[in-house]
Design brief:
Elements: H1 3-18, H2 21-102, H3 108-119, H4 129-139, H5 148-156, H6 166-172, H7 181-202, H8 206-220, H9 225-236, H10 242-255, H11 267-278, H12 280-290, H13 293-298
Length: 306
């Protein structure tokens, strides 16, 4: 240790002894922050240097891609759109050809019975323009997009009441512009039902199970009112925990405003009406619990939704 270093330490000790605590900290602050700031500045300089090198290396590639976009962008996009339209036309022609080769076949009466309730989304025992539009959305039927629902109802509405009876619906499903419509809708319905079953099977928490049940009700309400009655009875007869039934009621309320719901019907209104008809006291008890803000929040619901 040199005399100079000893003298420097003595000066720092004297400084600490002569000043109050605040001044001690102020004196130490530059000694601590100085090396940190220096290291951070060096690190940032290194990062900037490496980024500049990286950008310089990829610059030729980016310029070439930019030239391609300017030169071929419109052509590529037009080609993709033309290919998509051509593919749709080929698919429709193929479906029409296969339908003619197969003919009517056996089991058409059963398929008509099964699919009419799916097309009758409104539950009026008739198929309307809005029903066809809803079928297009619910089951992703591209052949029913645009003005097609109105065209079909106008074409097959023999009595002019702006809706299709089961007999008129039978003529609609044989229209060549929507080949295999019944089988497509049934297949999509089965797929949606399988997805809901998978969600319920994977559910572990009460809110997950109740949410899956609401999705199931949204699907079956469009097709089978009997099953809705069974579920409503099970929810209202106190055989299930009141907390679960309350959560299902809450999920049904929230589903009313969900743009991706699987039905256009008011599922909550249908189920709760049956519940109250069969088991009024337990239904009201669930409603009282759902109105409890503390319980609502404890179950993971948003207080603003209550």
């Amino acid at each position: 240790v040199t005399d100079a270093s000893l003298q420097a330490h003595q000066e720092k000790i004297s400084l600490l002894q002569a000043n109050p605590v605040v001044e001690h900290a102020s004196a130490l602050l530059p000694m601590i922050l100085g090396p940190v700031e220096e290291a951070a500045a060096k690190g940032m300089d290194l990062v900037i240097e490496q980024l500049d090198i990286f950008l310089e290396k990829i610059k030729p590639t980016l310029l070439l891609i930019g030239q391609w976009v300017v030169k071929f962008g419109d052509k590529i996009q037009a080609g993709i759109e033309a290919f998509s339209l051509t593919l749709d036309k080929v698919q429709k022609i193929f479906d029409q050809l296969m339908a003619k080769l197969r003919g009517t076949g056996e089991g058409k009466d059963i398929m008509l019975q099964q699919t009419f309730n799916l097309f009758d989304v409104s539950g009026t025992q008739f198929v309307t323009v809005q029903d066809l539009m809803d079928v297009c959305r619910l089951y992703s039927i591209s052949a029913l997009e645009g003005s097609k629902p109105l065209e079909l109802v106008t074409m097959y509405d023999a009595d002019g009441d702006e809706q299709l009876s089961p007999a008129e619906f039978e003529l609609l499903v044989d229209d060549e512009s929507i080949p295999n419509s019944m089988s497509i809708v049934l297949r999509m319905y089965a797929r949606r039902l399988s997805e809901v079953a998978g969600n319920v099977a994977a559910a572990r928490m009460r809110d997950e199970v109740s949410g899956g049940l609401v999705q199931y009700l949204q699907l079956v309400c469009a097709k089978n009112q009997t099953k809705v009655g069974w579920v409503a009875d099970a929810l209202g007869n106190a055989s299930l925990p009141i907390e679960f039934t309350t959560n299902v009621m809450g999920q049904m309320c929230l589903a009313e405003d969900d743009p991706n719901k699987l039905s256009t019907k008011s599922i909550g209104e249908m189920v709760v009406q049956v519940m109250y008809h069969l088991h009024p006291h337990h239904t009201l008890a669930c409603l009282d619990l759902m109105a409890n803000t503390s319980y609502w929040i404890s179950e993971g619901f948003d207080a603003l939704d209550q």
